[in-house]
Amino acid sequence: MPKAKLAITLDTSLVGELDRLVSQRRFANRSEAIEVAVAEKLKRIAKTRLAQECAKLNADDERALAEEGLAGSRDTWPEYERRDPLGRLEPGPRQGPGWVTPCPDPES
Question: Residue 20 is part of which domain span?
Answer without folding.
Answer: 12-72
